[in-house]
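Example 3.
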Amino acid sequence: MKRVVSVSLGSARRDHRVVVNLLGEEFEVQRQGTDGDLEAAEHRIRELDGMVDAIGLGGIDVYLFAGDRRYELRDGLRLKQAAVRSPVVDGSGVKRTLEPDAVRYLVEEAHLISPASRVLMVSALDRYFMAEAFVEAGCPTTFGDLIFALGMPYPIHTLEELAQIARKMLPELAKMPFNMLYPTGKEQEAAPSERFAQYYQEADVVAGDFHYLRKFLPARMDGKLVLTQTVTREDVEDLRRRGTAYLVTTTPEMEGRSFATNVIEGILVALLGKPPEDVTAEEYRELLHRLDFRPRVEALNVP
Amino acid sequence: MVTHQDLVHSLRSFRENCNANLQLKAMNRDWNRVIHVRVTDFTSEHTIVMREGHMEVQEGAPECADMIVSGPGGVLVDVFGGGVSPTEPYLAGELQVRGSQEDILRLDFISLMIWGE
């Protein structure tokens, strides 16, 4: 049996374990949260190194992208480098294919998004290829990176401005403790504030990281499509109560949970049996096709 | 050895660059704060006032501050003058910033928007 463990900076309350059969291989897939404790995550990765087929990094990114540049987050890199035998992935490899393909599917096949759909991407730097796909589809898109990461009411409307700000910010901000930039541990369980509700209200589609998305989630989300991942059953019910029309997760559901892209990338790397840096986008796409991994569309409040 | 006057020049330069940047002005339109800048290795205190995206700098300490930025004069001159980014001295403990986490990030952001890249 192959083992993939996602070590997450998120809350341990979201931990889970499933056994699945993928292309004839049994996989034990686990998520282990460390409640925002970076030291504990690093320690756990060292323990797992060489004992598992792949380690996923959850609740933290190693790489962010904007324009033609890639930025390394210091804390993410530290965790990645804690293992030397097992491959460590943060999901950024599969995000290049899985997420833009999900947008194209929703526009071209499911017809749930049109070029007229107004999109709020809560953060584009961690999902740059999804952001590009929305722009390519012609959707008026708001990138909420400054709103959601820094609490600054400044919506970004073009990829060019996003890349320009990233060039100034990210080489330095990437050195800051990750928990200053992103909700980790118990912060993920805090009740949403309505401080930036207006940006949700102006959108037809709200997309991106679920913890950011939840941070300012308004009481009513009537008629909106949410495109995200790593939602629990409780999260789905919460979105349903708020009137969300559709919930689309970019990753497949396993036993009631949509797994994070780092887990999916861990599975793919374990199946391919090669170092993640040697895997091409095309290899990921071909394998995702063979696995029949496609976005999961759930109609929550559709007459 | 830097002097009080060197820090005055650095802060003026910081203010002029901040006020000339229209993008930054729009970004900070909601951020009204009083920031106390205090040198730890000689006597020199300053006040930065942010109001609706506009920055003012005055010599002397404020009566009441939302944030306190302190450190050796050389570090403060470099940080406000764009000689170094605030991130490294902040992480190294040479630059102390007291305030809410969101305000600390915002001040770092302003500095990077002015001097970054």
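The first strand of chain A starts at residue 2 and ends at 8. Residues 12 and 33 of chain A are 4 Å apart (CA to CA).
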